[in-house]
């Protein structure tokens, strides 16, 4: 497997303001937004799959993907004769998550319009989001698993992760642990490497399952019992 080398759009006036406008312009299309949102599940998609998600022709999808590639929003990797596209990294996922939160804001009604299932549990790139994730995060704070600002696991938190068998990559360059603002709940869930490790653990234990092609997460009957017991929550 190898990465397809991409070139960022570069012009003589390389000001921060212009760079920001280029990124905003690259996102400012409903079809490209659909593509980016699909990639928020943390997996790599083919152009054909993204074409179906965005409900556009394959030739049109190619042009949109090139625009996203040239602006560093997605990357392309090749495996044999196939090409797969994914978000360029956690920073892009964070940008999109924040943009979703801003876009959900309305002065007319405080009621969230996110579908109920998606609001309860979904992926936020490579970690768990939604009402379930927010409740788990708040339980961790109450039980002193996390520092008050959510920036790190406490000694107690590290011990519990180790006892559960949750492995955190010690060599990662990303934040080991951080609060991530949930765009539907408007509260924090667990991000960073710790959040990613927790999602992986839940999947390995088959406490949760992914909905193919979507960000939605289903909690299994075993998972409801285990998560309820572990985090003192009532999971329906």
Automatic annotation (TrEMBL):
GO terms for molecular function: DNA binding. Residues 12-107 form the HTH arsR-type domain. InterPro entries: ArsR-like_HTH, HTH_ArsR_DNA-bd_dom, HTH_Metal-responsive_Reg, WH-like_DNA-bd_sf, WH_DNA-bd_sf. Keywords: DNA-binding. Gene3D superfamilies: Winged helix-like DNA-binding domain superfamily/Winged helix DNA-binding domain. SMART domains: HTH_ARSR. This is DNA-binding transcriptional ArsR family regulator. It comes from Winslowiella toletana.
């Amino acid at each position: 497997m190898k990465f397809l080398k991409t070139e960022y759009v570069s012009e003589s006036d390389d000001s921060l303001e212009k760079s920001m406008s280029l990124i905003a312009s690259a996102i400012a299309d409903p079809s490209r937004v659909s593509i980016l949102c699909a990639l928020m599940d943390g997996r790599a998609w083919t152009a054909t799959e993204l074409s179906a998600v965005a409900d556009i022709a394959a030739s049109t999808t190619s042009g949109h993907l090139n625009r996203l590639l040239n602006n560093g929003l997605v990357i392309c990797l090749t495996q044999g004769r196939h090409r797969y596209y994914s978000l360029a990294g956690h920073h892009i996922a964070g940008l999109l998550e924040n943009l979703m939160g801003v876009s959900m804001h309305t002065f007319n009604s405080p009621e969230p319009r996110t579908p109920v299932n998606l609001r309860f549990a979904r992926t936020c790139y490579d970690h768990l989001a939604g009402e379930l994730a927010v409740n788990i995060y708040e339980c961790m704070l109450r039980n002193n698993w996390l520092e008050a600002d959510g920036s790190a696991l406490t000694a107690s938190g590290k011990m519990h992760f180790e006892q559960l068998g949750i492995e955190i990559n010690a060599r990662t360059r990303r934040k080991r642990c951080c609060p991530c603002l949930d765009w539907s709940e408007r509260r924090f869930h667990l991000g960073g490497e710790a959040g990613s490790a927790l999602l992986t653990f839940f999947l390995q234990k088959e406490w949760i399952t992914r909905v193919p092609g979507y960000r939605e997460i289903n909690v299994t009957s075993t998972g409801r019992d285990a998560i309820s017991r572990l985090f003192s929550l009532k999971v329906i």
